[in-house]
From TrEMBL:
Subcellular location: Secreted
Enzyme class, UniProt record, top EC level: oxidoreductase
UniProt name for this protein: Peroxidase
Catalytic residue list: 65
Species name: Spirodela intermedia
Amino acid sequence: MGRLSLLPSLALSLLFVLGSAEAQLRIGFYSKSCPQAESIITEEIDRAIRVAPSIGGPLLRIFFHDCFVRGCDASLLLNSTSASNPTEKDARPNQFLRGFALIDRIKARLERPAPPPSPAPISLLSLRETSCTRPHGRRDGSVSIDTEALRLLPAFSANISTLKSQFDDVGLDSKDLVLLSGGHTIGNAHCFTFTGRLYNFSGRGDNSDTDPSLERNYLAKLRAKCAQGTSDALKLVEMDPGSFTTFDNSYFKLVAKRRGLFQSDAALLDDADTRSHVIRLAESDNSVFFREFAEAMVNMGNIAVLTGSQGRSGRTVPASTREREKRGLIVLSASCRE
Ligand code: HEM
């Protein structure tokens, strides 16, 4: 099967949100309270992708980083107003997230008319090109703590047992881990996230001290892009070279050939179960990856869902906003105004 360009395939692959069978989330949740929400979000996402086709990667990553900490409750969108009260956004793993400006722009438009959806759906909706079938009704959280993000988000140097256990902690299994790592088929990474594999890997310090799990030719290419030391630390490198704006199963083909960029990608070969999924996905049609990725994204979207009386609904925004501002937090998330 041929590869899909990012624009339509993002919508396809992000069926995670569209296809959720989560009983407590409901399609049409905002049809009365904010009927124009979907069309506004669709329009803004379409416009953003036309201007910056690579925006899909950053948005996908925002979704992952939000979901792993207290579920996809948009707590990642909260800004701290005091140094003594850092939020998730301030945590080191979130330092280089991009795409907040787009979410803010959508929020600004939604705030003009009608009543508020909670911010979580906005961050989620912003990850797809919106359709009418995603169940809504998710409540946003009101707690955002930097140390939780640091503890719960997997590190690029994580080994397979740490990865499995961090995914298990949020109710995701080894298959989810492999499928969701497939998100690395799009986007860029800074050199500093993988130069530890290229130079002085074991601390020996000579020129051959490199990560043995990294394929030699790829290693040489990465070395040519990222010099040792700090000069190139913030240089961006395509995670799926030549295909980094295309959502396809090439990530698994690379990992299977020991060309995964991060230690966490390479680690997927270190366990019989995760390795078998990598090989299977590398050898399957894209359609298999799209279907299973969508299922895994639904699983991630359902981590610790707040519904009903948990969390807060859009209509309680003003009170919650005051509460949060008292605690030094500013609400950045999107809402429709009554
Ligand atoms: C399994 C554990 C994971 C680790 C250790 C990890 C780590 C990373 C790192 C270090 C970067 C580069 C960040 C930068 O340099 O700015 C990155 C980028 C990215 N990650 Fe992951 N990630 C993981 C899982 C996921 C998941 C589950 C998704 C989504 C389903 C995802 C989607 C992305 C995307 C799309 C980018 C590119 C972002 C951009 O272009 O700005 N990652 N990841």
